[in-house]
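Researcher: Please predict.
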Amino acid sequence: MGEDGRQEADRYEQEGREVGEMESVQERMERLGTKEKIATFMQKEKQPYEFKRKYAQIRAEEFASECDGRGLNYHVSVGGLDSIVLYLFLHEICHINAPGVSASTLEDKSIQRVHKALGIINVPPLKREDGTYWTKPRVIQEFGFPVISKEVAGKIELLQNPTEKNKTVRHAIITGETGAYGGWQKNSKMQLKQKWLKLFGGYENENEGCDYEKPDFKVSSKCCYYLKEKNCDDWGKEHNSVPYLGLMASEGGRRARSLRMNGCNYFGASTIRSAPFAIFHRQDILQLALEMDTLWKGGLKEKYHEKLLKENCLSNSFKMPDSIIPEIYGTIEKKPDGTLYTTKAQRTGCSMCGFGIHIEKRPHRFDLLHENNPKEWDYLMFHMCKDENGNDYGWAKVLEYIGVGWDPTTIGENCKGQMSLEDFID
């Protein structure tokens, strides 16, 4: 479960306090004027590209100025295309000299190459108690598979790990019924959608009198935490630095609610961050990517190459990429109606991540991995974990369980892995 989700679960788990001491979700939203804030933010999302571009610049510069006044440093959390564009936008348009930080080794090789060309700082995964680093297979073996979405995986993880403390939130996940903090709702958004309840709700059959199924594998949202979130957060603390993030509310989920409630720049008690592209849509980020790529091809590539060579951050043999758009995305092209799109991957991430796989058309990310790296595909599908009897298994088992096709020979011959309206509403 992401940070927002963990905080919400924690709040639900504090139901032992007396009702009179507690402010409900609805009361708090009314006091903070949340509905009005969201409505205002969504109006900005409807504005034309030039407005959004200028708005992003203003917010980014305001964040840097406020951090300077507070004695804080700032950096860019860099991953895929969106944050690569953000890094260049801050440096070349806003003239904000913020270092880029990334758990780069998790990304596709073509993304890693662009990171290297930009001088992005690579932060290693967290260390285990035995002194070795966490790896993708180790995290999944110990905690579970990252599947469906961060929010849903976090809820399933709670169901798989019941405690007296999380009893209230587990009840809300199954029934939608909340306690005092949730305002005694009957159909809250804490409840899993029926599709996922049917497959993962069986852990509460005895408690709730239901008849759902449960798998023989674990599900978790902890991969990001151990492999990139905590280590990058630790880097920030060590350097007294707070992040610029390439997040957009249009991507949906808990992040969307948080961005629309709190705006592009947020200075909270425990969290400080800037998301200059918060009001962007996909078309806006692709348009800006083309602009940054034009700068790259117009002399920026040579500028970065010379700078990084002087700083001994590159070897003389390193070949700078011709485009800041990593090869995994293909190129950015325009449809007859003017819509921009990437010719290959639309979104990227860790090669073994399953978040969102259920809404991808085939060939989906694992099908493409089979095409580009069949050896890694075979490992992820069949050998990355061991069951209690010591037998190998992997993503094939998980995908089969949630109804997503994985066999490359069946592409086009079945509807598994195809999107439906229900799938978009996790």
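Model: Residues 385 and 391 are 8 Å apart (CA to CA).
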